[in-house]
Amino acid sequence: MGARPSAQEARPRTRPERDLRAERAVALARRGAVVAAAGLDIDQLVCACGSERYGLPLAAVAQVLPSRPCTPMPGAVPALDGLIALSGRIVGVLSLARALGRPDAASDAGSEGHLIVLRGPHPQPLALAVDRVLGIARVAASGEAAVDPDGLGNEAASVYAPGSASGAVGDGRPDFVVIDLPRLLRRALP
């Protein structure tokens, strides 16, 4: 009768779990380096509030609408203009200028403004009220946007995006401030 193989010999040899995790970590790090090396650009929706120009990540924008009257909410935060009904949903409307601590622009009779409806994991659908939407500009994600040492006087508006000589959206002013949307919303909403 032959010797019976031990349990250790019967199992196929496997690499330790620690080695597998190390290999996965290296592969994930390599994949991130490839994405960073690709020099991906981020599209920004450039809008105006008064004389200031701001960029919002286009990926965070669901739609842009002409402005409409809002129903005010008593006791709401100062940046909240009110509520609107949109496609069967109640949408909160924040004034981008007030959320950034800037004065609201004087309302012109010929200038209606726009609402930028945001997409994302917000518990309540949100829109930002701006004076006008100017267009789309591409900002290099590789760090071409310069961080302002003074923070531009606002935590949520901390990156300055210089444009090309031809102008980001064709109005002769190629520069705008990129908004950190999650930080803005944390600051503006309780």
How are the secondary structure elements laid out?
Layout: H1 7-10, H2 17-37, E1 41-49, E2 52-57, E3 61-66, E4 80-86, E5 89-95, H3 96-99, E6 114-118, E7 126-130, E8 132-140, E9 146-147, E10 157-161, E11 176-179, H4 181-188
What does this entry look like structurally?
This protein is an alpha+beta fold and 190 residues long. It contains four helices and eleven strands; from the N terminus they run ααβββββαββββββα. It has a six-stranded mixed sheet with strand order 8-1-2-11-10-9. Strand 6 and strand 7 form a beta hairpin. The longest helix is centred in the N-terminal third of the chain and has 21 residues. About 12% of the residues have low confidence.
Characteristics of this structure?
single chain, 190 residues, alpha+beta, six-stranded mixed sheet, five-stranded mixed sheet, 11 strands, elongated
